[in-house]
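Entry for the shared binder. Reason: the reviewer on the internal report wants the predicted structure included alongside the sequence.
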Amino acid sequence: MFDLLRRYRRQILISGFILAALLFYSANLRRGGASTLFERAVLQVTAPMQSALDVVWKGAADTWTHYLWLIDAGYENDRLLAENRVLTSELMQVREVRLANERLRKLLDFKAEVDLITLPAQVISEDASSWFRTVVIDKGSDDGVLEGMPVVVAEGVVGRTIRVAADQSRVLLITDASSAVASLIQKNRTRGICRGLGANLTLDFALRLEDIAVGDLIVTSGTGGVFPKGLTIGHVDEVSPVEYGLFQPVSVKPTVDFSRLEEVLVLLRESP
């Protein structure tokens, strides 16, 4: 202890002198009057130290204030991020409802156009294999669905029911290789059979001499006993002219996007 006092005695004496001078100066300030020579000397000596202390104090205060601001900003940022996640989720739900309403509005408009009894249904699963093109809907025999009934959307023909249970049915899509739909080209009434190719269709038995062009609309012909007449199937995607033979190859692109099927209509008919 004494060693420290001896080592720093000069600094301690100077600090004590400055402190005593400041106390004496403060006591004289209370009496008022003109500044003495001693007071001016104290001010001259202590002014740099007070300026330095003031700078240090302001810097510490600013650092503490900035630290508190950063903490508040962090809390506010976390709150805004959480609020943003909630709002984003709500926005996605609203958007999904809007899209569903648009699809249902199209179905209702189509239902009003056709003079048939329709049953709305929801697609609940699809065949994931590469061999078959089928989907399962949530309506079955309890709802009046029979095997062989047409299934459509506002854009066109989807397929027909091939298996029916009490509360669900399997639908064979028109793009399946085993599907065949009696068809005709709307502009010139050229007849043929639309068969599935997995993703697209082909129009078989279209006469070679018929005028068929890319973009021509193909609809159901009404023959075959499954699909009513005039339902949209697709558009001619490609025509391959041939010099010989009775028929010409015609590729057809369906108007229905089968990768996005959600709501469909079953066209009901009375049981035989």
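Summary line for the report: The two ends are 115 Å apart (CA to CA).
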